């Protein structure tokens, strides 16, 4: 046997360090996007489009991005917490994210008279609907033991995870197209627009690993029951 062969424990430790590094990188991306958009919107005054941009960024790009990663083992912020504590933080953070994100989207829809023709607008409306559905299914998942006669806890939580993850993906893609709107292009250089798009996509990809892994495991468990 080669002396360079790593034991399963050593291999796991190396992979965990990689996950921690990628998570730190993700936190930097999330922080940069959140801080800059907050600076931009607060500087121009929190009303109309500025309030919309700030709320959806805080709600989706910050709170929801952090919320979907709470149970992820590679999350440097919550790795040492017990599962019960992680679950509590998860509900609090995603409730804040959902309320902020949905409110921000609703403000713009009212401002536009619900006449949404752009890609950004259509995706934003989709994210709004998915956000409401995810928050509603979250209540069902929270009380899954009480409704288990109607739907098993595993199916209930899997459905909630799927809706929440779909909402997060659509929301960040909406944010990506938001950098092409007049509000942002009139206030930033082209190079900075590209930077913000790259940071948002990087955050989307790195934040998605944990939820996708958890969703895959739940789907495997469901398949074993049939």
UniProtKB/TrEMBL annotation:
Q: Which cofactor does it need?
A: heme b
Example GO biological process term?
Answer: iron ion import across plasma membrane
Q: Mind telling me which InterPro entries this protein's record contains?
A: CYB561D1/2, Cyt_b561/ferric_Rdtase_TM
Q: Name one GO molecular function term.
A: transmembrane monodehydroascorbate reductase activity
Q: Which UniProt keywords apply?
A: Electron transport, Heme, Iron, Membrane, Metal-binding, Transmembrane, Transmembrane helix, Transport
Cross-referenced Pfam families: Cytochrom_B561
CDD domains per the record? Cyt_b561
Indicate the segments forming the Cytochrome b561 domain, all copies.
21-215
Task: Please give the GO cellular component terms listed in this UniProt entry.
Answer: apical plasma membrane
Compartments where found? Membrane
Q: Which residues cross the membrane?
A: 20-39, 51-70, 91-111, 123-147, 159-179, 194-216
| Enzyme Commission code | 7.2.1.3
Lineage: superkingdom = Eukaryota
What PROSITE patterns does this protein's entry cite?
CYTOCHROME_B561
Does Zinc-finger appear among the keywords? no
- The enzyme class is translocase
Protein's membrane topology: Multi-pass membrane protein
Which PANTHER family does the record associate with it? ASCORBATE FERRIREDUCTASE (TRANSMEMBRANE), OS05G0565100 PROTEIN
Q: What is this protein called?
A: ascorbate ferrireductase (transmembrane)
Which organism does this record belong to?
Answer: Drosophila persimilis (Fruit fly)
Q: Taxonomically, what lineage is the organism?
A: Eukaryota, Metazoa, Ecdysozoa, Arthropoda, Hexapoda
């Amino acid at each position: 046997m080669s002396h360079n062969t790593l034991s399963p424990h050593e291999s796991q430790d190396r992979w965990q360090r990689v996950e921690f590094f990628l998570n730190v990188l993700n936190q930097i991306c999330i922080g940069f996007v959140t801080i800059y958009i907050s600076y931009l919107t607060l500087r121009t005054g929190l009303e109309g489009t500025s309030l919309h941009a700030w709320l959806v960024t805080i709600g989706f790009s910050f709170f929801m991005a952090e919320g979907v990663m709470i149970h992820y083992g590679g999350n440097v912020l919550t790795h040492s917490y017990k599962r019960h504590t992680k679950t509590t933080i998860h509900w609090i953070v995603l409730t804040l994210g959902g309320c902020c994100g949905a409110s921000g989207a609703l403000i713009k829809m009212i401002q536009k008279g619900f006449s949404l023709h752009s890609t950004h607008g259509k995706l934003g409306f989709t994210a709004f609907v998915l956000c409401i559905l995810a928050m509603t299914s979250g209540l069902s998942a929270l009380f899954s033991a009480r409704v288990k006669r109607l739907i098993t806890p595993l199916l209930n939580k899997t459905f909630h995870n799927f809706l929440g993850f779909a909402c997060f993906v659509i929301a960040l893609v909406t944010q990506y197209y938001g950098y092409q709107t007049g509000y942002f292009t009139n206030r930033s250089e082209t190079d900075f627009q590209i930077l913000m798009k790259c940071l948002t996509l990087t955050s989307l990809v790195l934040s998605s690993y944990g939820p996708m892994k958890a969703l895959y495991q739940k789907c495997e468990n469901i398949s074993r029951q049939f």
